[in-house]
Amino acid sequence: MLKIENIEKSFGQLKAVNGVSLEIEKDDIFGLIGPNGSGKSTLFNIISGFYRKDKGEIYFDGERIDDLLPNQIVERGLCRTFQVSRAPERMTVLENMLLAAKNQVGENPLNALLKRPMVERSRKKNLKKAKELLSELDLFHLKDEYSGNLSGGQKKLLALGRIFMLEPKMVLLDEPTAGVNPTLTNNILKGMQNLREKTENSFFIVEHDMGVISDVCRKVFVLNSGEILAEGSPEEIQQNDKVLDAYLGRN
Amino acid sequence: MPIANFTIYLFTMFGIYALFAMSLNLQVGYAGLVNFGQVAFFALGAYTSALLVVKAGLPIAVGIIAGMLASGFFGCLLAWPTKSLKSDYWAITTLAAGEVIRLFALNEKWLTEGPFGVMNIPQPLEGLIDKYYNIFYFIFVLIVVAVVYMLLSMLTDSPFGRNLKAIRDAEDLSKSLGKNTQKIKVQVMAIGGLVAGLAGAIFAHYMVYISPENFRPLETFLIWGMIIVGGRANNRGAILGAVVIQTFYVSTRFVGNYVPIGSDLMSAARMIVIGLLMVSFLIFRPEGLLRERKKTYPDEV
Hints:
By secondary structure, chain A is an alpha/beta fold. Helix content of chain A is 41%, strand content 24%. Chain B contains 13 helices and no strands.
């Protein structure tokens, strides 16, 4: 479903991603781990169109996407979250959810003025869905709070909620549980699994927490110094000597 | 009678500047685009309408609409190549664009009469209404302000308005949710241009005479003062700010008659006071007199 071939990206002299190739199949959860600075976030930024690659090709659903803009990639059903959650300072949690809804009639300024009944209908539909999702994620009581005022963990949960509204085919999650307390981590993981069961989409997760990765992922890729060091099931990865050296610093 | 006339003049100016301030508020308050050249759109609207009516003999309504379209088009033109710039570079570009329009009006004498300005600009229905013309024009401006306020409220309340706020607060996030942020920026510059052009055209037909002197960068800073004092991302705030700043700006002209300081010093002093007012608001009440309203949705479902 997502196929990455020989991606390279340098920042000045630093080769952040050095010839990475990997493939993600449909309807499953995949993990990407690696030490700090191994190129995980850079790779995510390239896949989602936020950075331009230097070399290589990326295909999604058979279509080449490495020269598309971020919004065009989202339109094709591939979306992402951020390591540091973005939360608009002066937009409420509910507005955040509504923001994420796809193809709203009133996003076109002329429609917003002239096609009021259609705008109203689509608003009602999205509002209903947004409120249901907020209840499921246990964020409903915060619906009128500014998203800028949420805690780090709540922002991550909200990021997941926006993804639910967007209904993508594949999601890149950049450290969905980093810095989040265990209860919220559980909520986030539960939400993620619920979403997958409902929509049959795939996840590609960057994580530091080996526990999280082993719990949810079927297959894990290990990135080190911009190169794929190993790939396999979580158990295989945990027993791989090269991985233990790179990741745990064992000599 | 002079006082009554002056009051009507003042209220008409409230209306014209309210339109002008609302146009900036859409860009700065809602979309977070730091625009330091808004006076260019005002000038384009004023000159386009005035020249089409005076020199080409077109009806005033056509002039006003053409003025709006010219400004809206200039908004697209300015936003297209600059849409990916970060805010400080964007600000410099808009500041320069504002000066380019003024210098064009100052130097292209064959078209604009240069520093002499455009004179004898016709006024709508001027032969028909004689005695109470100023009141008529004030009511005309009032209706335009009401209509523009209503349309802008519909826009800012819509998903389009929500996208603007998202670009202002978290542009990366908007992109990651599939929003074409660059297209939205072009749209918002065009809409802001339309409204500022309308304000400029109405200004030209009210003043009957315009020259490049009317469109100095100072004008942009006055409307910035209006939205800082009145409140950003709040159209009522923009209107209130226009009333407060305009009242102060116009009325202090007469203080010179009573206070023994020269008129040069006086005009500099009132800019200092407006500057101080802006800075104090930014420090002590950064949200302005009327804060941005939180958008809530009643429990309908």
